[in-house]
Amino acid sequence: ARPGLRIAAIFLAPSNIPTVYDPLLLGPYRVPRWVPHGARRWLWRTAVKYLVDPIAMPDVNAKRRAAGLAPARSLMDHIFAIPDWSIGLFPEWFAPTQPDWPQPMLRTGFPLYDPNPHAELSAELRQFLGQGGRTLVFTPGTGNRQARAYFAHAIEAAGAPGGAGGVFPPHPHPLPPPAPRTPATAHGA
Asked: Between the CA atoms of 73, 78, 82 and 88, what dihedral angle is there, to the nearest 10 degrees?
């Protein structure tokens, strides 16, 4: 919209970039590999049309009107048409570039963010880490706030015979009750 203005789209996770290639997930549903790409495109467009656009486009188009721009039809088309380049905040090995992702796609690797870099580890966590041996560490990632079931399975696995594990939620999740052999837990460790 402005001459000389360069725009970058930043994607925190590969799941934020629609693709018709594998693995194709629509929410919690995995689309089988045998479904043709044309049908997959239709699934994406239908999901965006009925689940995303009704929520997002009124605000997007209000901002566009205020800037003197014509309305955009769909959020996904709008997002992919805007940037001069896209930046993935994850490495190539974590999610290989798909043929239908916006190009050019630059990679930064995972950003290292520590909200409290000088915080001391709790005595409980230091004791746990000092036990030695093989240890499992469970964390769902920074953006996951619905991880109760994930942590329930992690605590179960850590409490199995021969298991030792640490559960490290990035947010103050309500953790499920501990297994008989309680693993270490630390918010934001």
From this structure: 180
Residues, the chain, total? 189
What are the φ/ψ torsions at residue 74 (nearest 5 degrees)? -145, 145
Burial of 164 (0-12, 13-18, 19+ CB in 10 A): middle
pTM metric for this prediction: 0.63
For the ranges 13-22, 43-52, 156-165, the maximum mean pLDDT occurs at 43-52
Cis peptide leading into residue 96 (ω within 30°) = no
The token pair that represents 90 in the structure block: 């994850």
In contact, 183 and 155? CB cutoff 8 Å: yes
Tell me the two tokens of residue 78.
């709008």
What residue numbers bound the domain in which 167 lies?
Answer: 123-185
Q: Would 100 be classed as within a structural domain?
A: yes
Residues 64 and 14 in one domain: yes
